[in-house]
Design goal:
The structure is a single chain. By secondary structure, this protein is α/β, with parallel strands linked by helices. It contains 8 helices and 5 strands. It has helices at 14-35, 38-50, 63-75, 86-94, 112-123, 138-142, 159-181, 183-192, and strands spanning 53-57, 80-83, 100-105, 127-133, 145-149. A 5-stranded parallel β-sheet has the order 2-1-3-4-5. Helix 1 crosses helix 7, helix 3 packs parallel to helix 7 (159-181) and helix 4 (86-94) runs parallel beside helix 5 (112-123). The protein starts with 13 loop residues before the first helix and ends in an 11-residue tail after the last helix.
Length: 203
């Protein structure tokens, strides 16, 4: 975390820290709202919904968001798996088929191991979806569906926290759109765990 207005975090009060972090996260979400491409989101949702299998690739700070994808997709009955080591990513990408979808998460879009896996998948004519920061980078050049979020400006922030906020926002958008198409699967999930479904149905 870096300084803002000449102050280091240790010099800020708890109230100032609450205000600063919340404000920057809100700004990141508002910026993402302005740049996210509706057509790319729709293409991604349709591809995932129709895929035989969804492979998810992430490393480091993007892993928490990737794990949330698995959690949400499982609730919708989507066959998916997270590959979270360079070795497993290369092996997985090399065996993908055109009826599968690959999702790649990288804030910078320049993570070497993620790019290597994406290139393998793209060469196998797999539908490749990137979730990365706004602007052209190696990942967006490789993938054919790119969902981009705001990049992080200078000042008081942490890449691992603010990047996760905007990544999770994209994931929630995809999840809700998929849930509208897979309502029966979501209902089964609620019934399985004896939760009250959105329509009031219980097991």
């Amino acid at each position: 975390i870096y300084e803002i207005d000449g102050k280091m975090p240790k010099e800020s009060t708890i109230r100032q820290t609450i205000d600063i972090v919340s404000k920057l996260n809100i700004e990141a979400l508002i910026s993402t709202l302005k740049i996210v491409d509706e057509k790319c989101v729709e293409r991604a949702v349709n591809a995932i919904n129709e895929a035989k299998h969804v492979a998810i690739y992430a490393l480091s700070g993007s892993l928490i968001a990737a794990q949330d994808i698995v959690f949400k997709f499982d609730r919708l009955g989507i066959n998916c798996r997270l590959y979270d080591t360079p070795h497993s990513q290369i092996l997985s990408a090399a065996g993908l088929n055109s009826d599968e979808v690959a999702i790649f998460l990288s804030y910078s879009g320049e993570t070497k191991d993620i790019i290597a896996a994406a290139e393998l998948a793209a060469n196998r004519r797999v539908k490749c979806i990137s979730i990365t920061k706004y602007g052209e980078n190696s990942l967006t050049k490789t993938c054919n569906i790119n969902i981009q979020h705001s990049s992080l400006g200078r000042g008081f922030r942490s890449f691992s926290t603010r990047s996760r906020v905007v990544q999770e926002n994209i994931i929630d958008i995809i999840f809700v759109a998929l849930a509208q198409r897979r309502g029966d699967q979501l209902k089964k999930y609620y019934q399985l765990f004896d939760y009250t479904a959105p329509n009031g149905t219980k097991k």
